[in-house]
Amino acid sequence: MWKTIIRRILIMIPQLFVLSLLIFIMAKFMPGDPFTGLVTPDTDPNRIEELRIQAGFYDPWYEQYYRWITNALQGEFGDSYSFQVKVSTLIGERGLNTLWLSLLSVTLLYAIAIPLGIIAGRYQNSLPDKLIVLYSFISYAIPTFVLALIFLFLFGYQYPIFPTSGTVDVQYDPGTWGYFWSKVYHLLLPAITYAILGTTTIIQYLRTEIIDAKRMDYVKTARSKGIPISKVYTKHIFRNSLLPIAAFFGFTITGLLGGSVFIETIFGFPGMGQLFINAISARDYSVITALVMLFGFLTLVGSLLSDIIMSIVDPRIRIE
Amino acid sequence: MANIENLLTIKNLHTSFRIKDTYYDAVENISINLNKNEILAIVGESGCGKSTLATSIVGLHDPINTKITGEILYKDLNLAAISESKFNDVRGNDIGMIFQDPLSALNPLVRIGEQISESLVYHTKFTKEQRKERVIELLNQVGIPNPERVVRQFPHQLSGGMRQRVMIAIAIACKPAIIVADEPTTALDVTIQAQILDLLKELQAETKSGIILITHDLGVVAEIADRVAVMYAGQVIEEAPVEELFNNPKHPYTRSLLNSIPQMNSENEKLQVIQGLVPSLKNLPREGCRFSSRVPWLDANTHEVNPVLHEVSPGHFVRCTCWKHFDFESAEGGN
């Protein structure tokens, strides 16, 4: 298995190389250059021209690409024009915020969806099942930004239980309990919003899987052994029904590191999603290329992670 | 069979399924008994209710859509009217079940050893070590080589025959008095079928248990059974000791079944078939001889109005009176 994992990682290198070429070429095609933003009415056009030559703007594209990629490999993506800091510092900071938000969101998501899915599947057609299905249809039908705005209005403005933006209150020092709780407090509302919107898929998947599994022959075998029905569920039905959810887990984790554009923007949460949108509207190319590169990398890692998880939970699958 | 000791008595059993809001009998008024140290075969074509009968005995029907009336008497219990938790003390402990397709009947995510020892957890006071020992002993008993390795394996790592042996090990784990085998050889290829039948016979001789064997394969019946009940459309239409049934079949359905087995040495190239189809559960006529639609050339008054089982010789029962008028020559003429 280790051999396969290493091979899969090695295959990522050419994939990432192609991705980087595409990103670089697209960035070159986009209008503007690093100095466009610096131009003021009294800037001498000749001076800008000089700066462009100095920065290597007129060098052949492959030389430019070589410079970019060698720097990128060392984690050096240049400076952000709009934020005036190093791109790596910026992404590190925002990535950390998004990471905390994601962890809380995913925990809440599974904590809500798995019990509901199990209840709905086990007691199919009962009143609780009907209510859960109704809930999941409603949460599926609401667009992200609508629910986020409703929550923000209700719990941030009308009944100000939660803060409406930011990641932490300023009066706390890093490392103290107050700081930690303030952070969690700021994360809660966006995380709950995210979790509620994500539950539909998991609930529906789990419910159908359990209903299908109930009719399986191996469940009959288990019952013919005289095992109590609750044990049949925990040992033979739930475990098998959780497989497809485990298969998505890798993607879910890495997908969340990309952040949620809507939720982060509406809740004023400085994470990756918000950074991406801001960078695009500010034409901050060095940030955009670095982010797209990172998202591509995360997707590849997610698919590998999913395969590894599958091979652990399902003995029939061996990655060879 | 020197001393006949009754194990299980089924009296007037009806098992009906709900379609929309009406219940239809899939098993209709069956009375039969199983003796100790006996293999009772129940034969019939698809849809005749034989698997429904087996599932009723083990109590695995979905209670929402199924209604069971009548009596299934085991020791001093009526299994047809027992609570689910009480039934759990009987299932696996006193009655073991073997299913048709061993691949789908084993949980793909659970190791073989665990699947076998599961029933030991609930029906014995064995310690973990004792259970482990018992599992190895069982695997040896059903003829699985290298049991120490197999206990740690998963079902997909075994061949079809090995899987069915594991199924049998599960069924006999708690030394049940009764084993219900629902088409145990249907999903296996012919050479493996013979091995599994030999194994069942061997185990039965060892444990003196009673086996109810559900099958549609008359070859299997001839090979292994002591007594046979032939089912058609939810009813037992003929019941006899195995030799009597093969030498002296009475009911037109039994005779047609035996006649439809292809013979290598027969000059007749044409495959013998039974006319018509088994009526579906909903369209089944609930009065008169169920087989009458398959033998249309027989006069209506050759059938009984309410066909019952008649004992034609000791231990040989036949339903209806139409068999007295049935022969294959008239069938040919009827065509």
Automatic annotation (TrEMBL), chain A:
<feature type="transmembrane region" description="Helical">
    <location>
        <begin position="9"/>
        <end position="30"/>
    </location>
</feature>
<keyword id="KW-0813">Transport</keyword>
<keyword id="KW-0812">Transmembrane</keyword>
<feature type="transmembrane region" description="Helical">
    <location>
        <begin position="99"/>
        <end position="120"/>
    </location>
</feature>
<feature type="transmembrane region" description="Helical">
    <location>
        <begin position="184"/>
        <end position="206"/>
    </location>
</feature>
<keyword id="KW-1003">Cell membrane</keyword>
<dbReference type="InterPro" id="IPR045621">
    <property type="entry name" value="BPD_transp_1_N"/>
</dbReference>
<feature type="domain" description="ABC transmembrane type-1">
    <location>
        <begin position="95"/>
        <end position="306"/>
    </location>
</feature>
<dbReference type="Pfam" id="PF19300">
    <property type="entry name" value="BPD_transp_1_N"/>
</dbReference>
<keyword id="KW-0472">Membrane</keyword>
<feature type="transmembrane region" description="Helical">
    <location>
        <begin position="287"/>
        <end position="313"/>
    </location>
</feature>
<comment type="similarity">
    <text>Belongs to the binding-protein-dependent transport system permease family.</text>
</comment>
<feature type="transmembrane region" description="Helical">
    <location>
        <begin position="132"/>
        <end position="155"/>
    </location>
</feature>
<keyword id="KW-1133">Transmembrane helix</keyword>
<dbReference type="InterPro" id="IPR035906">
    <property type="entry name" value="MetI-like_sf"/>
</dbReference>
<dbReference type="Pfam" id="PF00528">
    <property type="entry name" value="BPD_transp_1"/>
</dbReference>
<dbReference type="InterPro" id="IPR000515">
    <property type="entry name" value="MetI-like"/>
</dbReference>
<feature type="transmembrane region" description="Helical">
    <location>
        <begin position="242"/>
        <end position="267"/>
    </location>
</feature>
<protein>
    <submittedName>
        <fullName>ABC transporter permease</fullName>
    </submittedName>
</protein>
UniProtKB/TrEMBL annotation, chain B:
<dbReference type="InterPro" id="IPR017871">
    <property type="entry name" value="ABC_transporter-like_CS"/>
</dbReference>
<keyword id="KW-0547">Nucleotide-binding</keyword>
<dbReference type="InterPro" id="IPR050388">
    <property type="entry name" value="ABC_Ni/Peptide_Import"/>
</dbReference>
<dbReference type="Pfam" id="PF08352">
    <property type="entry name" value="oligo_HPY"/>
</dbReference>
<dbReference type="InterPro" id="IPR003439">
    <property type="entry name" value="ABC_transporter-like_ATP-bd"/>
</dbReference>
<dbReference type="GO" id="GO:0005524">
    <property type="term" value="F:ATP binding"/>
</dbReference>
<comment type="similarity">
    <text>Belongs to the ABC transporter superfamily.</text>
</comment>
<dbReference type="InterPro" id="IPR027417">
    <property type="entry name" value="P-loop_NTPase"/>
</dbReference>
<protein>
    <submittedName>
        <fullName>ABC transporter ATP-binding protein</fullName>
    </submittedName>
</protein>
<keyword id="KW-0472">Membrane</keyword>
<dbReference type="Pfam" id="PF00005">
    <property type="entry name" value="ABC_tran"/>
</dbReference>
<dbReference type="InterPro" id="IPR013563">
    <property type="entry name" value="Oligopep_ABC_C"/>
</dbReference>
<keyword id="KW-1003">Cell membrane</keyword>
<dbReference type="InterPro" id="IPR003593">
    <property type="entry name" value="AAA+_ATPase"/>
</dbReference>
<keyword id="KW-0813">Transport</keyword>
<keyword id="KW-0067">ATP-binding</keyword>
<feature type="domain" description="ABC transporter">
    <location>
        <begin position="8"/>
        <end position="258"/>
    </location>
</feature>
